[in-house]
Structures
1.
Amino acid sequence: MRNVVWFLVIALAIVHFDIWFWDDKTLLFGFLPIGLAFHASFSMACGLVWFLAVTFAWPKEIEAWADANEPPPTPATEGGMPLQQAAGMATDPFSGEEDSL
């Protein structure tokens, strides 16, 4: 199903560049320009494809990670200098010395 969703996304991207309704003066229902009707239909189709993507092609690993109740990794816990210390230090690019702000 994931491949079908990707195909639909690419198809919608191609169809979005509509050049066939630019000069068409046809009115639907006597008041709605056909270009506007096309874009309204296109928007609804995009919403449907997004629904399909979330329902059938959403990565299960993300849901499993979210349900595990583990805190997300942050730059301060992934190694290197803690953010509080890095925020208070500045390095002179020419001398390489660290100056306190």
2.
Amino acid sequence: MSATGVGADGVVVSIPAQSGYLSLCRVNASAIGAMLGFGVDALDDLRLAVTEAVTWSLESAEPGTRMELTVSGVDGTLHFAVVAQASEAASADIDDLASAILGAMVDEFSTELEGGRSRLAFTKSSSSE
């Protein structure tokens, strides 16, 4: 695992594309959310959104590669993105359940598949509790 700080408001973490690292992703996002003043319910929503985002990325990732997690916060809004090297079978589509969960937990989200890389990003405001 490697980590590089990005200013005082965020972090970039590179992890193996393996499900065992999911908790690390949730902890990083929750820590930034707590620094932004997210309440307990908003932090729970954030952890669930991170689980869905990383799970989607793991499903589209090429085995044996790494994922890059970026979490930052500005003015009470958390910005999250996870990028992975996509397998040939990957799709930018997200299943209905994951889409419904993300739609309920965050302010907005997007997925994309371009240049052999998958990306899921979302924002969540501390005022959206």
3.
Amino acid sequence: MGNEEQEHHVLSGVRCPSCRGAYSLVKFLGRKGDLYKVLVHCHACDTYGVGTARISEHSASFTPPAALRPPAPVSADDVLDIYIFLKDFDGDFRRLFGRGPVSKNVVE
């Protein structure tokens, strides 16, 4: 099987979980043995997804990405919360994520 034939065979019958449209292969993202991570595109709803394709000498299959629910819209409360946080944030991500300030000159 050539590359185009493999692509068609792997993606034939696989439908977008959002709209049931057909996928097309955008590119291969990585490979481990006969497993490939692939970026696919649904032309019907213009969404992208990452799936897993198994392509061996004798067969090919594709596991599509799961349907993802869109995130909830950003509310006015969300905007106010981030404004209050950022107003006084000093940029110290280590302290923010629990590692505390880092000092190179620690004396014990």
4.
Amino acid sequence: MPLSSLQPPIAEAPTAPPLHPAVSQAAATALVKGQVVDAIKLVRLEQHIGFNEAKDLIDTYLRSQPNLKIRIDEAQAGAREGLLRWLIFLLAGGAGLAYFLM
């Protein structure tokens, strides 16, 4: 039996999945700005899918774009740091106000 008869025809050969699903330009722009939630909303509206499916698409896209993922992680870390500073400031201000009012 010749070797070529064992191989499936090209049309029947399985194809590799794409590296990342198609994400619209608007969703990609939102991701570049660090707006992950907005990107998920855009994907949900454009592709008429649920939250979990849209989140999975965005996560897959981010895994295929490691530099973008790093930028988003840094932006989120900066936002958490800023939130923590405000929280400390408000607690200290509240404690000072309570001291002067007593």
